[in-house]
Amino acid sequence: MKRRLLWKLVATIVIGTVLLFWLIHLLMLHTEQHMSFIAERDQGLLKEYAKKAEKYYLADDIQSLDQWIKQIEEKEHTWAAVVTSQVTPIGNSYLSEAFQESFGLGRDISWKIHLYFKENPIMDLPIANGRAHFLITLPDRMRPGAYWFQTSLLLQIALPLLLMTLISVIIYRHVMSPLSQLEKATRQFSDGNFSVRVGKSLAKRQDEITALGETFDGMAERIGQLIQTQRHLISDLSHELRTPLARVELALSWAENQNLDPQLIERIRYECLQMRAMVEDTLTLAWLDNERPDLRQETLDLIDLIDSILDDARFEFPDRQLIITMPEQAIIENSSARAVGHAFENILRNALSHTPKEEPVKINVKTVMQSYLVEVDDVGPGVAEQHLSDIFKPFFRLAQASRENHRGFGVGLSLAKRHIEVCGGQLVAENLVNGGLRMTITLPTR
C-alpha cells in the first residue's frame, strides 16, 4: 500500500477523534444524570420537615404550624407551605385512579432536577396519608449540580486536551522511534562505524520510514565502500611513492660522488624532501579525518614545547628575527605534545617563510579565561579576506604564495588546524592592520 504511514496516522487521528467525542458525550450524560438528584442527606432533611409539618397538621395546631413554616422559610431562605389535596372535578368529569395515585402539586424529592433551569423547583412531600402536601421551594444549598459548570468545563476542555495529548504522544512515538534509530545510526556512521544498518529493525513497519531505512542502508553501503577504497588508495599511494623517492635519494647520493652540478643536485634533493613531507602530511591528515583518534591523553608545558620548536626555527631561518612574549609556564592537561608541537611548527614555519629577511616574527602566549592563546604574527603580504578560511583547505595555494623559500602544497596549515581541533582547540587567521597575517591558536587548559 502506498503512503502506508499516512493512512496509519489518518486512522489513528480519525478513530481517536471519534472515540473522544463518544467518550465525552457518554461522560457528560452519566455525570449530568448523577448530579441531577437531591443528595440523600438533603432528602432526609426535607422528609423531617414534612413529618414535623404533618405532626402540627394532624394535631390541628395551625398556630404552631405557621410558626414552623416561618422558621423553615427563614432558615432556608425559601418558600414553604402546607396545602390540602382536594381537587374537585366539574360536571361529568372525574378523577382517574392513575391521576389520584400520581397527583402532586410539586416535584417529588426523588425526581431528577434539571441542571439548566435557573429557578429552583417546588418539592412536594405528601402528608396525612395524601390528604395534604408539604410544599417547599428547593433551597439553593440543596440544589444538585453545584459544580456542574466546573465539571462540564473539565469534561469538555481538560479531558479532550488530555486525550489529544495521549494520541499525540502515541503518534510521536510511532514516528520518532524509527527516526531516533536513524539518528543513532547516522551518528555512529559519522563516528566511523561504516557497518551500521537499520533496515532489519524497521522492516516490520512496511511504510515510508521503512523505505527511508532501506535508502539509508544503501547510502551507508555505498559511502562505506568509497571510504574504504579511499583509505586503500591513500595507503597504496604512499607505499608506491616511498619506494621511488628512496631510489631518487640513493641516486642523488651517487650523483654527489660524481661531482655533478651541486645546485642541480640540491634542487632535486629539495623537491624529494618536499614530496616526502607532502606524502607524510597527507597520510596524517587522512588518518585524523577518517579515524578521528583521541589524542588528549597527556599533560604538557606549552612553553617548553614552544621553546624547543623555536630553537629549530632559529637554526633553519637564521636571517629572521623572533620576538617572543611568553609566561614562564603554561600547563595543559589532557592534550598531545606531538599534535600541538606539529601544529605550532607548521604555523611558525609558514610565518617565517612569508616574512622577508631581517624582519620579525612575533610569538605571543597569554591566558584568556580557561584557555591559552598563542598568536603568531608575520610581516608578509597577508591574505585576501575571502581566502582566510580557504588557506586551511588541503592543497589550497594562493597565487602570491609561490616564493623562493616557500613552495608548499597547502597541506601544512590543514594538518595544523586538524591537530589543534583534535586537542580541543581552534585555529583562526586574520590580517593585521599594518600588514601581515596573524595565526591564533586557542587551547583549553584542560
TrEMBL record:
Domain Histidine kinase per the UniProt entry, residue ranges: 236-446
SUPFAM superfamilies the UniProt entry points to: ATPase domain of HSP90 chaperone/DNA topoisomerase II/histidine kinase (SSF55874), HAMP domain-like (SSF158472), Homodimeric domain of signal transducing histidine kinase (SSF47384)
Residue ranges of every copy of the HAMP domain listed in the record: 173-228
Keywords: ATP-binding, Cell membrane, Kinase, Membrane, Nucleotide-binding, Phosphoprotein, Transferase, Transmembrane, Transmembrane helix
EC numbers for this chain: 2.7.13.3
Recorded topology in the membrane: Multi-pass membrane protein
Major enzyme class: transferase
Domain of life the protein comes from: Bacteria
Residue stretches spanning the membrane: 5-28
Subcellular location: Cell membrane
Catalysed reactions listed for this entry: ATP + protein L-histidine = ADP + protein N-phospho-L-histidine
Protein name per Swiss-Prot or TrEMBL: histidine kinase
